[in-house]
Amino acid sequence: MNTYYLFLKSYPTHVGFGFLLTFFSSLGQTFLISLYVPHILLELGISNSAFGAIYAVATIGSALLLVNFGGLIDHRPLPAYLYKTIGVLGAASVLLGLTHHVALLLPALLGLRFGGQGLMTHISHTVLGRHFEVDRGKALSLASLGFSVGEMVFPIFIALIIPLVGWRISLVMNATLLLAVLLPALQFLPLDEFGPATDSTADEVIEPVSRFALLKDRAFWTVAPSVVVLSLGTTGVFFYQLVLAQSRGWSAAWYSAVFSSYAASRFLFGLLGGTLVDRFTAKKLYAVHLAPLLFGLVVLGTTTEAWGAVVFLLSAGVSLGSSSSIKAALFAELHGTEGYGRVRSTYTSFMVAGTALGPMLFGTLLDAGVGFPTILVGTGVLLAAAALPTLSFTL
After folding, report:
1. Class of domain 12-189+205-394 (CATH, top level)
2. According to the per-residue pLDDT averaged within each range, which of 38-42, 260-264, 368-372 is highest?
3. Counts for the chain of helices (H) and strands (E), in that order
4. Chain center to CA of 312
5. CA dist., res. 149 & res. 37, Å (int)
6. Which of 23, 227, 250, 285 has the fewest beta carbons closer than 10 A?
7. Closest CA to 337 of 156, 94, 80, 73
């Protein structure tokens, strides 16, 4: 941990930049939006399946937008790019709070998914991933702690605020918090140092890869399936986690309490992942870091005992905590940092598509009478099959 302290001491504003963006990406993440779903369904009078379909369309739309706009970070001034992203996310949060008709639900969700899960995360990891070379893993790990802190802070904040002011005002308060904290903080962060980077210091200069060339790259298609399945599986499980708890006879209060074990595990391995990347490289770690999640899915699928949920949450925290830094570093190792924004946005669009398909696929299977044991074990098998080709990176 001393290496993290020394790195943070040397680059406090750089890490702060990445951390703040991942923290406020929470406004567009599934875990936060799901807290408003019961209120939206009740007031707009729509069904779970209708909301799921709208959410899937919004998420896929976000993936398509990210393909088109994510690469602009490679040659556009960062401040303007970032301010527009903040504007999209803040406006979408307000719009959702003002939504009284289902017609406004899609643009509101699209803005949240694109601005939050999409661009805020994309900017944080792209900027730090291309800015740091030797300590890339540490930078990405420290920045990724914003995800874990957001998962700890926002649910508590929202749970306290909604009974006092209502769910609509709480969404406006989320946007106000974004603008009141992030905009002033940016004045003290080194945005001018975060211009497009090159690999000029490397022994071998890697030419920028076009999106067409990337989609023809064997390495891309070695990684992309596991990126999709990882997002599909984890989003599907977390989207229906309370339904799963109810089917197992676990109280929502108990499950919400043990969910903190996931946040703690993700926080710890968010730190450890960066150290491991700097020591072993992301290529050697990629397939390995998926193993705990695979184990957790099998355990959760094959036992109805309460301890199975704890095992799954701890295991998921290990994989997802280390995943952010490992994936971001892997993309740079495979394709270089020149044109990194275009590369990462392409991978991220596949990931976002997976998050859209997860709840839809899980919901369809559940409605068809397929039980959670089959779904969870099947997801584990699918993840193993998708990850198998990436073992070639360790050879």
Report:
1. mainly alpha
2. 368-372
3. 19, 0
4. 18
5. 22
6. 250
7. 73
* CA-to-CA separations, 335 to 78, 107, 146, 215, 232, in angstroms, rounded: 22, 34, 26, 12, 24
The DSSP string of 146-202 is HHHHHHHHHHHHHHHHHHHH-HHHHHHHHHHHHHHHHHHHHTTS-GGG-S----TTS
- How far, in Å, CA of 164 to CA of 389, rounded? 51
**pLDDT over 50 at 252, yes or no:** yes
Q: Cα dist. 339→75, 130, 160, 208 in Å?
A: 9, 9, 43, 5
Cβ atoms of 286 and 326 within 8 Å: the answer is yes
Q: 367, 275, 388, 266: which is closest to 320 by C-alpha?
A: 266
Q: Tokens for 343, please give them.
A: 């590369």
For residues 383, 384, 388, 389, the Cα torsion angle rounded to the nearest 10 degrees is -20
pLDDT digits (tens, 9 = 90+) for 29-43: 988 887 788 888 889
3-state secondary structure of 82: helix
Cβ atoms of residues 109 and 359 within 8 Å:
no
**Dihedral of alpha carbons 316, 295, 137, 345, sign:** negative
Quote the tokens at residue 220. 């891309």
Query: Checking phi first, is residue 144 left (phi over 0); if not, alpha (psi -120 to 50) or beta?
Result: alpha
| Model confidence, pTM | 0.78
- 3-state SS, residue 54: helix
Closest of 76, 83, 94 to residue 182, by C-alpha: 83
Tens-digit pLDDT profile for residues 93-106? 999 999 999 999 99
Domains in the chain: boundaries: 12-189+205-394
